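Page 37, continued from 36.
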């Protein structure tokens, strides 16, 4: 199964989603592979910190930045593993278009942080729809928004979140019920090359597990 995490924008939590899902699936004994397609290689560096600290289970990471070979490479990896997590760059280029067409599930982390986050999300969904039209089988790649880095009690955040269901309806995408707050434990666990489910921080772990349950329900469909 190929799960990818993407958005136009930098710093929305794409890598956080991939590395934490990789750790959570690996903890369950799944054969997991991280695929890093972002040239800043944040997922690769996370896996490197994990390796250095000899954290188990170890999680292999493969770098793929060539749009010409990504289709065959991803298909092969998908045969050899249970779960592939693809960390995408903060743009929509030919490489990302191919990832969309190959994915079983696309996760779009959206932060409700700044005034233009809604426009950025809408721009992304418009382009996402155009890419889907290239599918020759008439199917659509399932895509879910994930509210990430929300702060409780911020009006800007709550009004952004309240506008998302309509946006999802307009563009035929869904939204995870779970919302992830801005919590320092995500930064800390990242720094140590572990997933939040391997790191003790109750609130962050609880929120991520709730999200993980939703992803698992999806992946056993
Ligand atoms: N819910 C969260 N709470 C606190 N910090 C978070 C949360 N999600 C992600 N972060 C932190 O925010 C930073 C950006 O997250 P991340 O690297 O996952 O974003 P990205 O979309 O992959 O960014 P880029 O576009 O640069 O690849 C990281 O330092 C990460 O640890
Ligand atoms: Mg990243």
């Amino acid at each position: 199964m190929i799960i990818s995490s993407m958005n136009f924008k930098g710093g929305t939590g794409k890598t956080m989603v991939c590395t934490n899902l990789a750790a959570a699936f690996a903890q369950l004994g799944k054969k997991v592979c991280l695929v890093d397609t972002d040239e800043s290689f944040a997922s690769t560096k996370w896996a490197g910190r994990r390796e250095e600290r000899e954290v188990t289970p170890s999680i292999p990471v493969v770098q793929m930045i060539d749009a010409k070979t990504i289709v065959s490479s991803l298909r092969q990896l998908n045969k050899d593993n249970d779960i592939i997590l693809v960390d995408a760059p903060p743009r929509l280029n030919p490489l990302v278009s191919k990832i969309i067409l190959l994915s079983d599930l696309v996760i779009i982390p959206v932060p409700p942080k700044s005034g233009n986050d809604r426009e950025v999300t809408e721009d992304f969904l418009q382009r996402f729809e155009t890419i889907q039209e290239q599918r020759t089988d008439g199917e659509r790649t399932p895509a879910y928004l994930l509210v990430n880095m929300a702060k409780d009690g911020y009006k800007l955040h709550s009004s952004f979140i309240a506008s998302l269901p309509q946006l999802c309806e307009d563009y035929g995408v869904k939204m995870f019920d779970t919302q992830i707050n801005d919590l320092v434990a995500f930064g800390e666990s990242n720094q140590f090359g572990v997933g939040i489910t391997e790191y003790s921080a109750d609130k962050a772990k609880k929120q991520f597990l709730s999200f993980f349950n939703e992803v698992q329900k999806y992946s056993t469909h």
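The pocket of adenosine-5'-triphosphate (ligand 1) is lined by residues 10-16, 38, 40, 42, 90, 148-149, 180, 182-183, 186-187, 190 (CB under 6 Å). Flag for discussion at group meeting. DSSP finds eight helices and seven strands in the chain.
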